[in-house]
Recover the amino acids of this structure.
């Protein structure tokens, strides 16, 4: 069960309202790398987790992320406080309000006109948050790796936001949130590596002959060798079709009944390679003749 | 520039068509952990990457993932071949076709009725692929971690699919695709760790006093200590508001003009805590009296 | 700040695992009327709210909805426990696992194959949760009405789910969750009606001459009069264009420069109503003549 | 069956084109609170409704909302007329067109570059309209409440748009549309309250012991009592887990076969709480030692 | 302005309710090729169209598509009538209702549990309708081609649905709707070809040297020549990079200030190709040694 | 199998970085009419296609579109190069970076803050690419028409982008991409018309009596006759309900059991047309009397 304390985990002090800045902050509220994504990610993993240690860690961090969602959302709300009053009570003239909304820059007009200055669960472009952002698949060695990567990404987005404002109070609160991502990443790393073994994930082994092959699929100036494709670590092979030694062509067995229908479909819809039909595009060139397309050598087949 | 060879990277042999199985395979075609997501992920990173080594690796792997998209899509197409003929040419009776489509199970009806038996870029639930699945943010230490996690997840989904079919040819091709995820994960790992330093990501340091704190946000039976929150690695603290030592309450400065409007808004929309108004719900209880809600002690204030 | 207690707000007792039932339960986890939507709805309103009474109520209820999200998610996880083991560890044969996944019915295959038996933030059809479900606009008289309606809807979806299972423990927990929606609706109703005035919402008055008009836009057998369009409450008028007394035709003023371009565009792209051109469709009828479409009276104009 | 009259329900007079203003108007065209949402909402309810009175009212209002969609869409088209010509015919120089498109502000560049100055079914941020905006669930007491709330929201968005322009003709047409929302809200209210009884919605009663409880889930300075949680109306209780008197811990029964697999999964993936493994993050700190993270007291366990 | 007549454009007679069939019908209600998409497509084009002939045609057809939306939605509602009663009133036992909902097949459980048996604006997989389905771009020669293609697709989906039912009344109404798509396609074709010229669309000419080239980008067994790449119509060339004769490598000019930062970024994040770092994956193999990955020849560089 | 050559199909030369222009270019990268959509469209058709000629053409063009995706993505990356450095390394002051990001105009702030200056798979408004953009249905005569329309649309969007920049290198590369759409459209046209017959698509004939009818659904000033509704081609009829000669009213047969439940539902939820209930809106008018709404003639019925 969750409980709430009206004091924030970290005090938010905003020295000046600014709806344009508020809008950029939405990235960490309702954006793909934001706190709602983090909280939902760990909370849903918690529910399905059976390992006592991970289960406890997941809910500790999920609950903290919810508290961070509150901190960043409070920053957005504080920065929008002036805009909220303007939108609901109006300004002296319509032109003034129009300029105020358009002049704040980026996509803050959506927050103002559609959401009345409240903090919507969208990113800074106004795109609604979607659970498609969450990549949990119910396997701990994968989910922990996904969590590690997610914490790293969130750290960077906070870094970018910190670089965008010189409001000391906002900077400080963002700095706290950024720092906690570093801490959480470390916890998830410890949890991953205390699983023995965690690589490759899952139970099925790979095919030995392909597990350490590196295929050079892109050729030309710019090929580089390094530990990611070095002879020490990989068998370096040029791209090649049908590496199984087969034909490379797909085969399937269709029942006799189905085969009849498939054949019927093929005949009904075949394109005749020997035709040279007049086309709609030729009709559409609009210069009196339907047959002037191509290279001037067209001959009608009809 | 891309070029294409009509032979697959791995030969696909399907021994029996099965639209229900085809539909489950869509997870790795147009699903969140599938090959389109992988190819797009690495290809877009390639475009913006300036490091020669990573750039080459990203396009090698992106190109291979495109070739895997072709392999899994071919499996879907082969498994659906019979269904494709049925949908377009019909069966003997409508009831037969209805049963054939409904009886295949899971969501294959969408593939059949809407997509005519072709391989749509959806997951097995029919949800269209979205770039919201891609978590690239343009920082290499983050993006490599995201790639590592993505490869791990793809490995597991393939493992699940392999466990679902006893068609030897399908199993083998899926086994190849699964194996290559293991290989790619290893390359991304090597690339990540050949960045010195890669943790914490980015340039800004965290706040020292919070970087190694673990907050015990969830209490009760089930608290577990382990390396993810051990004294060896973390300062273990109980949850506490306002860890900055402040009030925990948000503050902002609103310009005088805005303050007037904010105040006006507050007054115009305040909820009177001393009222006990009749409500719509009370009207809606429908038993002759609007005031029977609550605990039987309601007294009207109007 | 949020804190978490490892005990649920209401004890969940599941007497038998059932992935098909689990999947239907997702409606109240990651579905449009579910608990995540409720929690996000009230929590974001809380952040922007300045009225002390509403602010307190919103966070009380938001926190409880989070706790309900945990209860329903726990039900999903418990019902999926068997399926989770099967997916990750496999069954005796692939055919057995395939049947197990397909046989569970509805869309539970997505939960199993893609999410490994965990509770994903999707509805029962596998559609990812989206903040587009939240209709908060930052005006209290509107948002409270939206909340009232949302609670009513959630009550009904729980009622439908309760009718779907005879597992006493599941039924009881769902009954608790359903009951709380009734309670919350009553709180929101009280809060709405303690705003004086709350109708019409906002500041701008309507145009008196149209505020109580009912337009009979649909005619024919089935017209019914009732309080929603009665003479006692409304002026009942037949549908009519240009109720303002104007022409009903749109007018705009375009600058001279723009007018030139608009005119140029019009000429460049006009459709000639006097032509009778041969079309692609006619070419495509495939019977030797391009001009047999229509009513047999076609005469070429070119 | 629908029919159309080429005259608008309300005459639209635009005195000056303005693509930036046009873009904001999209909120009521393809935005979540806009006219397409309204029309679809009532039209789909109409189709399933069996009550003669509600059925008639729903189609009357749905048809009017379609006519409003036409009015607001016409406003958008008129305001964009100049931009449409510029985009298709070009301006004197590319730089001029670039400035014209960027300078219009907000997200009008999407309307211009992607939609050619036509009115797309997006909101003002360019987000495509989605049926996820519609919250109809097929229960009249819920759907009417949802409609009431939707009308209230639409009224407010119109109010905000009216405050943004001083074009008298646009203001007047918006005023009409806003007024009609007031009228429609009244009709839906009358229809709701002429259902006896409409609260609680549905058939199943709540659990008496929880139906009028208010849980104080959020504590700290800021707790407020009012009619929404007053003793007159509610039993006011402090938050507490396991309000059913049980353990608060979930229980489920798993078949013996499944239990074996669940146990096997647990063992295979357990995190060892006694380990202190070196992690990737530690490798990534890049200072010659993998073991310097944490609080300086780390001791290796391997 | 729209008006509505309570009689359908075509009478709907359903001889037996069937929620599974109802669900498949949703493809033409809220699916990508369905009637809402068609109506919205033509209606929004109408609003921006200035050509009198096309404008009139677009609104005629848009209005008819709305009337078709009503016909197909009515079919869905009629087929769901029994299910609607079951969901709201319950069946004798919960198990009976569960079987009834699961047994109807495909995704009808979403329609029943979430939408109460009403016709939701989703496709048959439960995916909400989105304006992303509409491809209007505000150029008549393009939009008419899009409309032609859309009508062709809708025709085929109706054909598939007709093949799925032997209910004579449903078949007949679907047959009418299918027929009208044929008719509409012909109108759009006539409108397109009465534009002189309509190909290539727009004003800018292509580069002559590439306008009729066909690049053979895919090689191997299966190359076919036909009118789409014949010498008569095209210059057939093998794939080749840098067809402009340049280097094929991108170039850009970065300001000196930016160049410094770009260089700084490159140095800070470079991957060292000469390293062979231990990786997380190696740590995770879990066999006592972190260095056994790759081909057994790894040598540490640190 | 795909292979990649590090040289682009067309050399990209950018003379000046410009994140605002970069953002507009995203329309053809991750926008609905862009190259990813094109590549996916043809590639998935290729997989399911059985006709040898079309199959070869589809993969040739799909592969070229992938190569175009690379060209346009490279343009975006080059134009963003400066912004990428600024975002990751910071500027001299936070205010400078804030101005730099906001001042670039349109939605480039999303690309910069969220995607770090890389090319995301979104449109210029930041909306993530979705497979809902792809309208393939698995019927060749439809899919070819869809492809023709898609090429036409892409041509126009390129034309608009070309008009927006005077950077000669960008203009030239865009010109190449635009030209290739013209070429591809011609190939698809040839392929369509070499199918005999291709209209109407599919197997089922239409109802003769409705196949060439044009219904005049919209009346009033503005009716125009042309080849799309001329007597030569169509039977021109006024709009009329129940064109089948029936009642126009839907009928269905519900089983006796279901009928009981439907009737029970109707009675339970009926709206009483003879009531005039007090409503929530009336309570909310807040002027001491609940009964002042409407036209002043209200009389209570309760």
């Amino acid at each position: 069960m969750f409980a709430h304390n009206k004091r924030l985990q970290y005090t938010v002090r905003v020295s000046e309202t600014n709806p344009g800045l508020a809008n950029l902050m939405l990235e960490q509220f309702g954006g793909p790398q934001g706190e709602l994504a983090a909280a939902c990610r760990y909370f849903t993993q918690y529910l399905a987790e059976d390992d006592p240690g991970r289960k406890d860690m997941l809910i500790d961090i999920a609950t903290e992320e919810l508290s961070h969602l509150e901190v960043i959302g409070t920053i957005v709300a504080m920065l929008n406080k002036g805009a909220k009053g303007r939108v609901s009570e109006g300004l002296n003239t319509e032109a003034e309000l129009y300029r105020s909304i358009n002049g704040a820059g980026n996509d803050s007009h959506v927050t103002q006109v559609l959401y009345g200055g409240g903090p919507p669960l969208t990113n800074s472009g106004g795109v609604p948050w979607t659970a498609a952002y969450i990549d949990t698949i119910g396997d701990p060695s994968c989910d922990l790796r996904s969590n590690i990567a997610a914490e790293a990404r969130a750290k960077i987005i906070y870094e970018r936001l910190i670089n965008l404002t010189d409001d000391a109070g906002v900077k400080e609160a963002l700095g706290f949130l950024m720092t906690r991502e570093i801490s959480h990443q470390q916890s998830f790393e410890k949890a991953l590596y205390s699983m023995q073994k965690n690589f490759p994930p899952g139970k099925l082994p790979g095919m030995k002959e392909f597990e350490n092959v590196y295929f050079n699929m892109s050729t030309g100036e710019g090929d580089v060798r390094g530990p990611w494709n070095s002879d020490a670590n990989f068998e370096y092979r040029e791209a090649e079709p049908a590496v199984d030694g087969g034909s490379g062509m797909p085969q399937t067995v269709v029942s006799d009944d189905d085969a009849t229908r498939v054949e019927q479909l093929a005949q009904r819809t075949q394109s005749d390679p020997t035709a040279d039909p007049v086309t709609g595009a030729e009709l559409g060139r609009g210069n009196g003749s339907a047959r002037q397309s191509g290279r001037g050598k067209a001959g009608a087949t009809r």
Summary: The first strand of chain E starts at residue 2 and ends at 5. The radius of gyration of chain E is 29 Å. Confidence is low (pLDDT under 50) at residues 288-302 of chain E.
